[in-house]
Design brief:
The complex is a heterodimer of chains A (about 400) and B (about 250). Chain A is α/β, with parallel strands linked by helices. Chain A is built from 14 helices and 14 strands. Chain A folds into three domains: about 210 residues, P-loop containing nucleotide triphosphate hydrolases (Rossmann fold); about 70 residues, Alpha-Beta Plaits, CATH 3.30.70; about 100 residues, no CATH class. The longest helix of chain A is centred in the C-terminal third of the chain and has 15 residues. Chain A starts with a strand and ends in a 28-residue tail after the last helix. Classes of the chains: A alpha/beta (about 400), B mainly alpha (about 250). The interface between A and B is medium-sized, with 28 and 23 residues.
Chain lengths: ~400, ~250
């Protein structure tokens, strides 16, 4: 359906997109994920033919995007990030313009426009002036514009930006619904959204594909971070390390230090070994405080790619988990949103979560970074800048949420 | 063709849905009317001469022609590039040439509407007793519209050069002034090489070509071709620039 080979785009010396290749089959829903400036929009623009590639080839539905541009454009419904609409027109007029551009027969126009409006839930606004609509409503009109020609491929560039949490959920539902008939590509920097909707995720970082696969696959491949966390009163740390390390299936055991009388260990293993670890604790008579199974979420994998953290490092959990905290954290979080990919973070190297067929061993073999590397700098990123509230408590007051970018 | 028509309809609607279109039309028509009464008085009631003045023999026509198209074309590409509309148009299933031609046609229609006020003056004069020479009036009107298309095309070239609308308008304005003042350059040359100067003026001067044929009621094919060809040249240039923008 869509095949991209070695796509590169340079902007005056700077490589916005750097030799990426991927294939998308008919009916797939693919989420493009990346921090601001990672190359998502540039890639999508090249897919639509708006930007020509510096090198590389794109074919959509068997047509070359540059040479058979019109054929490709007929088959693509594209919602640019800026949601371009003529403000002086009414919603129905704007959709009528789109219908004529796509050569929809005069007789069908009314019905098609009505059905597109209904799908995005703005039938009652069809006679409103676009300039007078709120951002969220305009966003919906934009989606209706992309849907109207019933394209084979839908390309949506950040379709949920500027929407309130309820509308986000609706748009997510809409995308899932569309996925049944169309190939959908959409970009986002909101993780839970992509995780919820997309069976396939492409993480783009600095113009390259950092990861490609289903969220579960990516999590599995980042599996070196699976571990059982044990917090207990352990009299002899050396012995505990040896005992835990001898359990079958355990790759490494990390001593995370003492807090009061309790000592914390991270027992890295592929499978959930809580019972075994528990049995050792019971046998040695360690007073248990915590025994839990930890798996990295897609979020952590993404943060690692985005912040170029080493394997052992982790961003602190998001404090926006509760609404009250989110309210307090709002200001700091807003500044976090403006981080670009190039912000100097830890001095550590890139981890590579590789696509299907690649080996996940590469990341496991890297030594964990020295804690001193990450220690002082990590504090700045205590707040997770990628959680823009898509999974926050809907009962919370609206203004308590993190800032929307516009 | 269908795409051109769609763009044309949208642009024309756009011109009349914004206050800019209406206010420019209002001011231009007001000026046009005032000047026409002046011409009538100056020529001692000669309707044909007055209409010729109004359609290009006098300066106010050229002033309007130099000012209006840049103000209208700056919104057509430059501003659309800035607010993202161009991204929509360039990914819609229409050719780049259809976008440019549609916009140029819309602009020409708008200016034609403005010049058609002269037809109304002609009709009024006939009602009041002095019938104008309708053939000459229509030829003058046609010439005025042709020249408007040329200036519109120049405006579109300027508009596709830059993302700053006001800069686009300014560029177009300067270029329009240059176009008109070629004949003055010719006159200056005339002090030394009279034959060369005459040739330059006759071949290149837009006002001369309009006044010497259309406004006399004579349709000279060389003049029609001159205006049409240069309009096409500028439209092609604008289309190429629109294409080239993708690479910037």
């Amino acid at each position: 359906m869509i095949s991209v080979t070695n796509l590169t785009r340079r902007f005056s010396g700077f490589r916005a997109v750097d030799g990426i290749s991927f294939e998308i089959e008919r009916g797939e829903v693919v989420g493009f994920l990346g921090v601001n400036g990672a190359g998502k929009t540039t890639t999508l623009r090249m897919l639509t033919g708006y930007l020509p590639a510096t090198s590389g080839a794109i074919s959509v539905c068997g047509f070359d995007v540059l040479r058979q541009s019109l054929e490709v454009r007929r088959r693509i419904g594209y919602l640019p990030e800026s949601v371009p609409l003529y403000r002086e027109h009414r919603v129905s007029e704007m959709l009528g313009f789109q219908a004529r551009l796509h050569g929809i027969a005069r007789g069908d126009r009314k019905a098609r426009i009505a059905s597109a409006l209904e799908r995005v839930g703005i039938t009652d606004r069809s006679e409103h002036l676009i300039g007078k609509l709120s951002k969220g409503l305009r966003q919906r009109v934009g989606i209706a514009m992309a849907l109207l020609p019933e394209p084979e491929v839908l390309i949506l560039d950040e379709p949920t930006s500027g929407l309130d949490p309820l509308q986000r959920i609706e748009v997510r539902g809409l995308i899932s619904e569309l996925a049944q008939e169309h190939t959908v590509i959409f970009s986002s920097h909101i993780l839970p959204e992509v995780e919820a909707v997309c069976p396939r995720v492409l993480i783009i970082h600095k113009g390259r594909i950092a990861a490609d696969g289903s969220p579960e696959e990516l999590v599995r491949q980042g599996g070196s971070a699976n571990h059982v966390r044990l917090e207990a009163v352990v009299p002899d740390a050396e012995e505990a390390l040896r005992l835990l390390g001898s359990l079958p299936g355990v790759s490494t055991v990390k001593d995370c230090g003492r807090e009061g009388i309790h000592r914390t260990f991270e027992v890295a293993c592929e499978e959930d070994l809580r019972e075994d670890v528990g049995a050792v604790a019971a046998m040695r008579g360690w007073a248990l405080r915590e025994l839990s199974w930890r798996q990295p979420s897609l979020e952590q994998i993404f943060s690692r790619v985005a912040f170029e953290l080493e394997d052992g490092q982790e961003l602190a959990p998001s404090p926006a988990a509760t609404a009250g905290q989110a309210a307090n954290a709002g200001a700091v979080q807003a500044s976090g949103l403006e981080l670009s990919a190039s912000a100097p973070l830890s001095g550590a190297g890139t981890i590579e979560v590789q696509g299907p067929g690649g080996s996940s061993a590469a990341s496991a073999n890297k030594p964990p970074a020295k804690p001193t590397d990450a220690g002082p700098k990590r504090a700045v990123f205590n707040l997770n800048p990628f959680d823009m509230g898509a999974n926050r408590d809907l009962g919370a007051p609206k203004d308590a949420g993190p800032r929307e970018d516009s | 063709m269908k795409g051109t028509l769609t763009i044309y309809r949208r642009e024309l609607a756009g011109l009349f849905l914004t206050p800019l279109g209406w206010s420019l039309l209002f001011l231009a028509l007001l000026l046009n009317g005032l000047y026409f009464t002046q011409y009538l008085e100056l020529t001692g009631g000669n309707v044909d001469e007055s209409l010729s003045y109004s359609l290009g023999q006098a300066l106010p026509y050229w002033a309007l022609l130099v000012l209006l198209p840049p103000l209208l074309t700056m919104r057509m590409i430059s501003e659309e590039a800035r607010n993202g509309m161009l991204e929509f148009l360039l990914t819609a299933p229409v050719r780049d040439s259809a976008i440019i031609i549609g916009k140029a046609l819309a602009l020409t229609s708008f200016l034609a509407l403005l010049w058609s006020s002269n037809l109304v003056y002609g009709g009024l004069c006939q009602l009041l007793g002095t019938a104008p020479d309708w053939g000459r009036l229509w030829a003058g009107f046609g010439g005025a519209v042709l020249v408007s298309a040329l200036f519109g095309a120049v405006g579109l070239v300027a508009s596709s050069l830059t993302n700053t609308p006001i800069l686009a308008a300014f560029l177009a304005l300067i270029f329009n002034v240059l176009l008109i003042s070629i004949s003055y350059v010719g006159a200056w040359l005339g002090q030394r090489w009279p034959e060369l100067a005459e040739a330059v003026i006759n071949k290149t001067s837009i006002p001369n070509r309009l006044t010497s044929s259309f406004l006399r009621g004579a349709l000279d094919s060389s003049d029609v071709v001159f205006f049409a060809a240069w309009t096409v040249v500028f439209l092609v240039l604008a289309t190429r620039l629109l294409e080239a923008r993708r690479w910037w």
